[in-house]
Amino acid sequence: MSIILEPVARTRPVSLPPYLVQPIISSRIRALVLPEAVAGPVEAKDALWVREGFTVLERQRRRNLLSIRYAGEGRRYDVPWPAALSKPEAGVRDAGSMPVTASRLTLLITAVRRCALGEVTADEALTAGVSIDVDGYGVVGFPFLNPYDHPAAALEFLFRQQHRRVADVPQVAVVEFQAVTRNIASMAVQRATEEVQA
User: Fold this and answer.
1) CA atoms in the 13 A half-sphere facing the CB of 157
2) pTM exceeding 0.70
3) Residues above pLDDT 90, as percent of the chain
């Protein structure tokens, strides 16, 4: 499948837990509900590059590649690394430590709606990780959770798991996106090459 790369106005990182990454890659999740402070001034046509937890592997193969394993996965990935920089020590890193060169997922924003958490619609909740179960509403990544009676309650649980430091119910940004399993820097190079060839 080919994706036409439109110019991106702004880019920002977004840190995500491992239980959301695979559902985003598979298009099960097509929106994020973020505190406004985390989302920042994003709008349609902006892009978010995904930070996720990872492990720097003990054995490194080449100077210009960093060998890592993404959280929740067993596969080894070699990502570009500047040969002039020393590599980080082996070990587990949280999502906030991920450099842009290691990001494997870019979210091209198609729409943003700002509202109170309680004003997120049922449809938006379903695209953001709430699922319909036999007995009510579940949450992606929490298969043994007792179902909720309403999608808003399930969404609030998911929101609280991702943003534990947020004390009160904040204003949020419902960020709808198209996920692309490409590094944002390599996408920029592709776009520049296409512009030169045009």
Assistant:
1) 19
2) yes
3) 67
